[in-house]
Amino acid sequence: MTEHEWDQLKDRELDNSLGVLFRSAGALAPLPGFTSRTLKAVRRAPLPAGRRALRHPLVAPISWTVLIAAAAGALAAVVAAHPAVATFFASVLVGAVRAGLWMLHSVTVGFVWADVLRAIGRAVARGIATPQGSIGMMVIVATAALSLSALRRLLDLDSTRAQS
Amino acid sequence: MAATDGELVEEALAGSEHAFRELVRRYERGVFGVIVRVVRDPARAEELAQDTFVKAFRALHTYDTTRKFPSWLLTIAHHTAIDEVRKHVPETSDLDPQMADHRQPTPHQSAERAELAAVLRTAIDRLRPEYRELVALKYEQELEYDEIVEITGMPVGTVKSSLHRARKELVDHLEQLGWRH
Q1: Are B115 and B174 in contact, with CB atoms under 8 Å apart?
Q2: How open is the CA angle A80-A83-A88, to the nearest 5 degrees?
Protein backbone atom coordinates (compact mmCIF):
# COMPACT_ATOMS: atom_id res chain seq x y z
CA MET A 1 0.00 0.00 0.00
CA THR A 2 1.39 3.42 -0.98
CA GLU A 3 1.55 6.32 1.44
CA HIS A 4 -1.23 8.10 -0.49
CA GLU A 5 -3.51 5.06 -0.31
CA TRP A 6 -2.76 4.76 3.41
CA ASP A 7 -3.71 8.43 3.91
CA GLN A 8 -6.95 7.90 2.00
CA LEU A 9 -7.80 4.88 4.11
CA LYS A 10 -7.14 6.85 7.32
CA ASP A 11 -9.29 9.71 5.99
CA ARG A 12 -12.17 7.34 5.28
CA GLU A 13 -11.87 5.83 8.76
CA LEU A 14 -11.90 9.31 10.30
CA ASP A 15 -14.89 10.25 8.15
CA ASN A 16 -16.79 7.22 9.42
CA SER A 17 -15.84 7.88 13.07
CA LEU A 18 -16.92 11.51 12.79
CA GLY A 19 -20.15 10.47 11.08
CA VAL A 20 -20.93 8.11 13.98
CA LEU A 21 -20.03 10.82 16.51
CA PHE A 22 -22.29 13.43 14.89
CA ARG A 23 -25.17 10.97 14.60
CA SER A 24 -24.77 9.95 18.26
CA ALA A 25 -24.80 13.59 19.37
CA GLY A 26 -28.12 14.13 17.56
CA ALA A 27 -29.23 16.94 15.28
CA LEU A 28 -29.58 20.52 16.45
CA ALA A 29 -33.14 21.74 16.38
CA PRO A 30 -34.77 25.14 16.79
CA LEU A 31 -37.03 25.73 19.77
CA PRO A 32 -40.57 24.28 19.64
CA GLY A 33 -43.04 26.44 17.73
CA PHE A 34 -40.48 27.39 15.08
CA THR A 35 -42.69 26.17 12.24
CA SER A 36 -45.68 28.28 13.30
CA ARG A 37 -43.53 31.37 13.90
CA THR A 38 -41.91 30.92 10.49
CA LEU A 39 -45.25 30.56 8.71
CA LYS A 40 -46.48 33.72 10.40
CA ALA A 41 -43.40 35.55 9.05
CA VAL A 42 -43.92 34.00 5.59
CA ARG A 43 -47.56 35.18 5.54
CA ARG A 44 -46.48 38.73 6.39
CA ALA A 45 -43.71 38.90 3.77
CA PRO A 46 -44.55 40.86 0.57
CA LEU A 47 -44.65 38.66 -2.52
CA PRO A 48 -43.40 39.35 -6.05
CA ALA A 49 -46.10 40.29 -8.57
CA GLY A 50 -48.13 37.35 -9.82
CA ARG A 51 -47.41 35.15 -6.83
CA ARG A 52 -50.26 33.69 -4.82
CA ALA A 53 -50.18 34.19 -1.04
CA LEU A 54 -50.53 31.23 1.29
CA ARG A 55 -54.05 30.33 2.33
CA HIS A 56 -54.78 29.09 5.82
CA PRO A 57 -56.03 25.46 5.65
CA LEU A 58 -59.34 26.48 7.30
CA VAL A 59 -60.09 29.23 4.76
CA ALA A 60 -61.60 26.89 2.13
CA PRO A 61 -63.97 24.94 4.47
CA ILE A 62 -65.07 28.17 6.18
CA SER A 63 -65.76 29.84 2.80
CA TRP A 64 -67.84 26.87 1.65
CA THR A 65 -69.80 26.82 4.90
CA VAL A 66 -70.55 30.54 4.62
CA LEU A 67 -71.57 30.15 0.96
CA ILE A 68 -73.91 27.23 1.68
CA ALA A 69 -75.41 28.99 4.70
CA ALA A 70 -76.02 32.12 2.60
CA ALA A 71 -77.69 30.09 -0.16
CA ALA A 72 -79.88 28.27 2.37
CA GLY A 73 -80.84 31.58 4.00
CA ALA A 74 -81.76 33.13 0.66
CA LEU A 75 -83.85 30.10 -0.26
CA ALA A 76 -85.64 30.15 3.08
CA ALA A 77 -86.48 33.83 2.59
CA VAL A 78 -87.90 33.21 -0.91
CA VAL A 79 -89.94 30.21 0.29
CA ALA A 80 -91.37 32.21 3.21
CA ALA A 81 -92.42 35.05 0.85
CA HIS A 82 -93.95 32.88 -1.93
CA PRO A 83 -95.90 29.70 -0.93
CA ALA A 84 -96.09 28.58 -4.60
CA VAL A 85 -92.30 28.46 -4.73
CA ALA A 86 -92.38 26.36 -1.55
CA THR A 87 -94.78 23.86 -3.18
CA PHE A 88 -92.63 23.71 -6.33
CA PHE A 89 -89.49 23.30 -4.26
CA ALA A 90 -91.13 20.51 -2.21
CA SER A 91 -92.18 18.63 -5.37
CA VAL A 92 -88.66 18.96 -6.81
CA LEU A 93 -87.25 17.68 -3.53
CA VAL A 94 -89.65 14.70 -3.46
CA GLY A 95 -88.79 13.91 -7.10
CA ALA A 96 -85.08 14.07 -6.34
CA VAL A 97 -85.47 11.80 -3.29
CA ARG A 98 -87.51 9.28 -5.35
CA ALA A 99 -84.93 9.31 -8.13
CA GLY A 100 -82.20 8.79 -5.59
CA LEU A 101 -84.03 5.85 -4.01
CA TRP A 102 -84.68 4.29 -7.43
CA MET A 103 -80.99 4.61 -8.31
CA LEU A 104 -79.99 3.16 -4.97
CA HIS A 105 -82.35 0.21 -5.52
CA SER A 106 -80.93 -0.42 -9.03
CA VAL A 107 -77.40 -0.32 -7.74
CA THR A 108 -78.27 -2.70 -4.87
CA VAL A 109 -79.91 -5.16 -7.29
CA GLY A 110 -76.87 -4.89 -9.54
CA PHE A 111 -74.67 -5.67 -6.58
CA VAL A 112 -76.81 -8.70 -5.65
CA TRP A 113 -76.59 -10.15 -9.19
CA ALA A 114 -72.90 -9.45 -9.29
CA ASP A 115 -72.54 -11.28 -5.95
CA VAL A 116 -74.46 -14.31 -7.23
CA LEU A 117 -72.37 -14.51 -10.41
CA ARG A 118 -69.20 -14.06 -8.40
CA ALA A 119 -70.23 -16.88 -6.01
CA ILE A 120 -70.94 -19.22 -8.95
CA GLY A 121 -67.59 -18.33 -10.51
CA ARG A 122 -65.79 -19.00 -7.23
CA ALA A 123 -67.59 -22.36 -6.76
CA VAL A 124 -66.70 -23.44 -10.31
CA ALA A 125 -63.09 -22.39 -9.88
CA ARG A 126 -62.83 -24.19 -6.53
CA GLY A 127 -64.53 -27.28 -7.97
CA ILE A 128 -62.16 -27.50 -10.91
CA ALA A 129 -59.14 -27.04 -8.69
CA THR A 130 -59.59 -30.45 -6.86
CA PRO A 131 -59.71 -33.97 -8.49
CA GLN A 132 -63.06 -34.76 -6.83
CA GLY A 133 -64.40 -31.41 -7.91
CA SER A 134 -63.24 -31.95 -11.50
CA ILE A 135 -65.02 -35.32 -11.63
CA GLY A 136 -68.13 -33.76 -10.07
CA MET A 137 -68.06 -30.92 -12.58
CA MET A 138 -67.65 -33.39 -15.47
CA VAL A 139 -70.62 -35.40 -14.16
CA ILE A 140 -72.72 -32.21 -13.90
CA VAL A 141 -71.72 -31.07 -17.39
CA ALA A 142 -72.39 -34.55 -18.83
CA THR A 143 -75.78 -34.74 -17.08
CA ALA A 144 -76.66 -31.29 -18.37
CA ALA A 145 -75.60 -32.26 -21.92
CA LEU A 146 -77.62 -35.49 -21.78
CA SER A 147 -80.64 -33.64 -20.39
CA LEU A 148 -80.42 -31.05 -23.12
CA SER A 149 -80.12 -33.67 -25.83
CA ALA A 150 -83.11 -35.63 -24.37
CA LEU A 151 -85.14 -32.44 -24.23
CA ARG A 152 -84.26 -31.64 -27.83
CA ARG A 153 -85.24 -35.17 -28.94
CA LEU A 154 -88.56 -34.81 -27.12
CA LEU A 155 -89.21 -31.48 -28.81
CA ASP A 156 -88.32 -32.98 -32.24
CA LEU A 157 -90.70 -35.92 -31.61
CA ASP A 158 -93.41 -33.53 -30.58
CA SER A 159 -93.03 -31.42 -33.73
CA THR A 160 -93.07 -34.50 -36.09
CA ARG A 161 -96.17 -35.76 -34.32
CA ALA A 162 -97.84 -32.40 -34.78
CA GLN A 163 -96.94 -32.35 -38.53
CA SER A 164 -98.33 -35.89 -39.12
CA MET B 1 -47.43 7.91 0.64
CA ALA B 2 -45.73 11.20 1.61
CA ALA B 3 -45.67 13.93 -1.04
CA THR B 4 -42.32 14.66 -2.69
CA ASP B 5 -40.59 18.01 -2.23
CA GLY B 6 -41.45 18.91 -5.85
CA GLU B 7 -45.14 18.22 -5.27
CA LEU B 8 -45.12 20.28 -2.06
CA VAL B 9 -43.41 23.17 -3.89
CA GLU B 10 -46.11 23.12 -6.58
CA GLU B 11 -48.88 23.07 -3.98
CA ALA B 12 -47.23 25.89 -2.02
CA LEU B 13 -47.00 27.94 -5.22
CA ALA B 14 -50.73 27.37 -5.67
CA GLY B 15 -51.26 28.84 -2.18
CA SER B 16 -51.32 25.76 0.06
CA GLU B 17 -50.07 26.72 3.49
CA HIS B 18 -50.21 23.09 4.53
CA ALA B 19 -47.65 22.21 1.82
CA PHE B 20 -45.21 24.94 2.79
CA ARG B 21 -45.62 24.05 6.49
CA GLU B 22 -44.59 20.50 5.60
CA LEU B 23 -41.48 21.78 3.79
CA VAL B 24 -40.54 23.89 6.84
CA ARG B 25 -41.05 20.86 9.11
CA ARG B 26 -38.87 18.69 6.90
CA TYR B 27 -35.93 21.06 6.68
CA GLU B 28 -36.01 23.29 9.76
CA ARG B 29 -33.38 21.17 11.53
CA GLY B 30 -31.03 21.18 8.54
CA VAL B 31 -31.31 24.92 7.93
CA PHE B 32 -31.02 25.81 11.61
CA GLY B 33 -28.17 23.33 12.15
CA VAL B 34 -26.01 24.84 9.41
CA ILE B 35 -26.72 28.45 10.38
CA VAL B 36 -26.12 27.96 14.10
CA ARG B 37 -22.75 26.36 13.39
CA VAL B 38 -21.72 29.46 11.44
CA VAL B 39 -23.13 32.24 13.64
CA ARG B 40 -22.89 30.40 17.00
CA ASP B 41 -25.77 32.39 18.45
CA PRO B 42 -28.91 30.23 18.75
CA ALA B 43 -31.37 33.11 18.99
CA ARG B 44 -29.87 34.86 15.96
CA ALA B 45 -29.64 31.52 14.13
CA GLU B 46 -33.36 31.00 14.63
CA GLU B 47 -34.11 34.44 13.19
CA LEU B 48 -31.82 33.73 10.25
CA ALA B 49 -33.40 30.32 9.71
CA GLN B 50 -36.77 32.06 9.62
CA ASP B 51 -35.38 34.60 7.11
CA THR B 52 -34.14 31.69 5.01
CA PHE B 53 -37.63 30.21 4.76
CA VAL B 54 -39.17 33.60 4.00
CA LYS B 55 -36.61 34.17 1.21
CA ALA B 56 -37.20 30.62 -0.03
CA PHE B 57 -40.95 31.18 -0.22
CA ARG B 58 -40.54 34.50 -2.00
CA ALA B 59 -38.20 32.86 -4.55
CA LEU B 60 -40.10 29.57 -4.78
CA HIS B 61 -41.18 30.24 -8.38
CA THR B 62 -37.49 30.30 -9.39
CA TYR B 63 -36.79 26.85 -7.90
CA ASP B 64 -35.71 24.44 -10.61
CA THR B 65 -37.35 21.08 -9.87
CA THR B 66 -34.42 19.20 -11.42
CA ARG B 67 -32.34 20.33 -8.42
CA LYS B 68 -32.61 18.80 -4.97
CA PHE B 69 -34.81 21.00 -2.81
CA PRO B 70 -32.61 20.72 0.33
CA SER B 71 -29.53 21.82 -1.66
CA TRP B 72 -31.44 24.82 -3.04
CA LEU B 73 -32.70 25.72 0.44
CA LEU B 74 -29.29 25.28 2.08
CA THR B 75 -27.77 27.55 -0.57
CA ILE B 76 -30.11 30.30 0.68
CA ALA B 77 -29.23 29.40 4.28
CA HIS B 78 -25.51 29.55 3.43
CA HIS B 79 -25.80 33.05 1.92
CA THR B 80 -27.94 34.24 4.82
CA ALA B 81 -25.41 33.00 7.38
CA ILE B 82 -22.37 34.31 5.47
CA ASP B 83 -24.00 37.75 5.09
CA GLU B 84 -24.56 37.81 8.84
CA VAL B 85 -20.93 36.89 9.58
CA ARG B 86 -19.73 39.57 7.14
CA LYS B 87 -21.94 42.20 8.77
CA HIS B 88 -20.50 41.63 12.21
CA VAL B 89 -18.61 38.98 14.08
CA PRO B 90 -21.25 37.39 16.29
CA GLU B 91 -20.75 37.01 19.98
CA THR B 92 -20.24 33.45 21.00
CA SER B 93 -22.85 32.08 23.34
CA ASP B 94 -23.35 28.59 24.61
CA LEU B 95 -25.67 26.52 22.52
CA ASP B 96 -28.71 25.77 24.64
CA PRO B 97 -28.94 22.06 25.54
CA GLN B 98 -32.68 22.38 24.71
CA MET B 99 -31.60 22.78 21.10
CA ALA B 100 -30.70 19.14 20.85
CA ASP B 101 -33.21 17.17 18.84
CA HIS B 102 -36.45 16.80 20.84
CA ARG B 103 -36.92 13.15 19.93
CA GLN B 104 -34.67 11.54 22.55
CA PRO B 105 -36.09 8.35 23.96
CA THR B 106 -34.60 7.86 27.47
CA PRO B 107 -33.06 10.17 30.09
CA HIS B 108 -29.82 8.14 29.99
CA GLN B 109 -29.48 8.45 26.22
CA SER B 110 -30.44 12.06 26.58
CA ALA B 111 -27.61 12.70 29.03
CA GLU B 112 -25.09 10.86 26.86
CA ARG B 113 -26.19 12.81 23.82
CA ALA B 114 -26.01 16.10 25.68
CA GLU B 115 -22.46 15.28 26.78
CA LEU B 116 -21.40 14.31 23.27
CA ALA B 117 -23.10 17.36 21.83
CA ALA B 118 -21.24 19.58 24.30
CA VAL B 119 -17.87 18.08 23.35
CA LEU B 120 -18.66 18.45 19.66
CA ARG B 121 -19.85 22.02 20.12
CA THR B 122 -16.66 23.01 21.91
CA ALA B 123 -14.50 21.37 19.24
CA ILE B 124 -16.48 22.86 16.33
CA ASP B 125 -16.49 26.32 17.94
CA ARG B 126 -12.69 26.29 17.83
CA LEU B 127 -12.76 25.99 14.02
CA ARG B 128 -12.92 29.03 11.76
CA PRO B 129 -16.43 29.90 10.38
CA GLU B 130 -15.93 28.49 6.87
CA TYR B 131 -14.67 25.20 8.32
CA ARG B 132 -17.56 25.07 10.78
CA GLU B 133 -20.04 25.32 7.92
CA LEU B 134 -18.28 22.67 5.84
CA VAL B 135 -18.18 20.31 8.80
CA ALA B 136 -21.90 20.91 9.47
CA LEU B 137 -22.77 20.24 5.83
CA LYS B 138 -20.60 17.15 5.57
CA TYR B 139 -21.18 15.43 8.91
CA GLU B 140 -24.40 16.87 10.34
CA GLN B 141 -26.34 17.07 7.08
CA GLU B 142 -24.41 14.12 5.59
CA LEU B 143 -24.15 15.76 2.17
CA GLU B 144 -21.94 14.65 -0.72
CA TYR B 145 -19.10 16.81 -2.07
CA ASP B 146 -21.09 17.86 -5.17
CA GLU B 147 -23.95 19.07 -2.98
CA ILE B 148 -21.56 21.06 -0.78
CA VAL B 149 -20.03 22.57 -3.92
CA GLU B 150 -23.52 23.55 -5.11
CA ILE B 151 -24.45 25.11 -1.77
CA THR B 152 -21.24 27.01 -1.04
CA GLY B 153 -20.27 27.86 -4.62
CA MET B 154 -16.67 26.83 -3.87
CA PRO B 155 -14.64 24.82 -6.40
CA VAL B 156 -14.65 21.10 -5.65
CA GLY B 157 -10.89 21.09 -4.99
CA THR B 158 -11.25 23.84 -2.41
CA VAL B 159 -14.12 22.00 -0.72
CA LYS B 160 -12.08 18.79 -0.52
CA SER B 161 -8.90 20.42 0.75
CA SER B 162 -10.77 22.65 3.23
CA LEU B 163 -12.72 19.68 4.55
CA HIS B 164 -9.49 17.71 4.86
CA ARG B 165 -7.95 20.48 6.99
CA ALA B 166 -11.20 21.03 8.91
CA ARG B 167 -11.44 17.35 9.74
CA LYS B 168 -7.83 17.25 10.92
CA GLU B 169 -8.32 20.32 13.14
CA LEU B 170 -11.63 19.01 14.47
CA VAL B 171 -10.09 15.65 15.39
CA ASP B 172 -7.19 17.43 17.14
CA HIS B 173 -9.64 19.50 19.18
CA LEU B 174 -11.79 16.47 19.95
CA GLU B 175 -8.75 14.50 21.09
CA GLN B 176 -7.75 17.36 23.38
CA LEU B 177 -11.24 17.08 24.86
CA GLY B 178 -10.77 13.36 25.48
CA TRP B 179 -12.40 11.83 22.39
CA ARG B 180 -10.79 8.68 20.99
CA HIS B 181 -11.84 7.28 17.63
Answers
A1: no
A2: 115
Please give the Cα distance from B172 to B174 (Å, whole number): 5
Residues in chain A: 164
Residue B170 has a pLDDT of: 92
Of the candidates B14, B100, B181, the beta carbon closest to that of A52 is on: B14
Rounded average pLDDT over B141-166? 93
Instruction: Please give the mean pLDDT across all residues of chain A.
Output: 83
Looking at the complex, does the CB of residue A10 fall below 8 Å from at least one CB of chain B? no
pLDDT digits (tens, 9 = 90+) for A86-115: 788 788 888 999 999 888 888 777 777 778
- DSSP for A31-68? PTTHHHHHHHHHHHS---TTPPPPBPTTHHHHHHHHHH
Partner B contacted by A2 (CB < 8 A): no
How many helices (H) and strands (E) would you count in chain B? Answer: 8, 0
Percent of chain A with pLDDT over 70: 95
Full-prediction pTM beyond 0.90? no
Average pLDDT over residues B76-86: 92
The ipTM estimated for the assembled molecules is 0.78
Shortest CA gap A69–chain B (Å): 25
Separation CA B27–CA B75 (nearest Å): 13
Is B174–A55 a contact, with Cβ atoms under 8 angstroms apart?
A: no
Three-state SS sequence of A97-115: HHHHHHHHHHHHHHHHHHH
Residue of A23, A6, A15 lying closest to B145 (CA atoms)? A15
What is the model's pLDDT at position B10?
94
Minimum CA–CA partner of B12 in chain A? A54
Residues of B in contact with A56 (CB under 8 A): 17
Residue A127 pLDDT > 80: no
User: Residue A32's Cα: distance from chain center in Å?
Assistant: 37
B156 part of contact set with chain A, CB < 8 Å? no
